[in-house]
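Worked Example 4.2. Read the sequence first, then its structure tokens.
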Amino acid sequence: MRSLSDIFDEYDFLDGDDRYRLLIELGRTLEAMPDALKTDATLVRGCSASVWVYPVPQDDGRLHFLADSNAAITKGIVALVLAAVQDRPAAEVAAMDVAAALAPFDLTRQLSSNRTQGVPNMIALVQDTARRIAAG
């Protein structure tokens, strides 16, 4: 997965339609999430599209997430959120300000409120999971 700063460098250079295309392409790069993991327990509440996020704690304390969405642009937004936290130590993910890391993308200005309304819930789910795993 590309770093968030690398993604932003490209995103910042583009205009509206190309930004949409970039987000869709990011969504296509997400690791496949098996359908068996797309359950009510992994569903992110409050999203306009269906979004599933599944944590995979690593032996070294890092968190790896599998995620998917049934909407291409939303899947790209999920990929952005994961780019901020993927494969980092659980304690670091729990303590970081993910919303601030995503702020340069100004998603609320670039996308409709329907597209971005679930972002805080995605972040909360990722960080709640990280806190639980970091606590042991």
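Now turn to a second chain, presented in exactly the same format:
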Amino acid sequence: MKLSALKLALQSREQIAFKLPNGSLVPAHFHVTEVGHIHKKFIDCGGTVREESRIGLQLWSANDYNHRLHPEKLIHILELSEKVLKLEDHEIEVEYQGETINKFGLDIEGDVFVLTGTETDCLAKAACGIPQQKKKVSLSDLQNEKSTCCTPESGCC
């Protein structure tokens, strides 16, 4: 989800809820402790220099159980961050404390923001000698696709 989509979604909400990939909710008394511009410049294993930018949003839960961040307050925080940090409309990366700091993508499902799992990947598979995944085909599908031009009565054999 991009920053513009998050701000738009917040406008129609009365409360904010984040759901973790395991289905549990981030405690309602969470804080947004950081909004940042994350710029990563790196070289992949194939020798290609790459750059990517994201918006970082860090969630944190403390023991102040009466704390509630309202949508209009989060919009204000995001707009201030845009102005001060000169943020562009990048994808959002959410950090939240688990056993260690976890990084998530962000999506929306009904009235809940969903923290989506992220994965590593090789960006230079050909340079690393990693074969492309072969298309899995069912034998029954192959039988359905056989040509009718080569039947015993067609005279082609």
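Notes for the reader: The first helix runs from residue 3 to 11. The mean pLDDT is 90.
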